Amino acid sequence: MSVGNLNTQGDKKNNWTWQNAVLQLLGQIAAGGGGGGCPCPSSAQEATLLQVLIKLTAVTTTPSLARVTNALGSPIVAGAKSVTVYNAGAANGLVLGSTIKPGESLTWSAGDMNNTLGAISYDGTGTELVITKVV
Fold this sequence. Notes:
Elements (H helix, E strand, L loop, with lengths): L15 H15 L12 H14 L6 E6 L13 E6 L5 E3 L2 E3 L4 E5 L12 E2 L5 E6 L1
């Protein structure tokens, strides 16, 4: 079971006691006994484990791209996993009430675990904002 099997206990090697205990515990778990210090999960524990599994399960995300020269689509609705706003025009725009200068890019990511972003306001009047998002 391990690399450290030195001849210090005859034919059983030096970690035989530990290996035997692990094998006995695995046997108890397989037989449904829970393995002593490993009690069978309660329904509350199973519900928690199910929630963790749901959070860790991969989901399909949909990317989108929009070029805007006004504020008609504002705000970007809540629920996106990531959003990038790039000012491709020659004039300043507004994102979340702050100036986005020509050539600047702003990116937000909700991170892992199925988190999402809130709404993001913008105004591309007089310039061109390229907005990409993943939902």
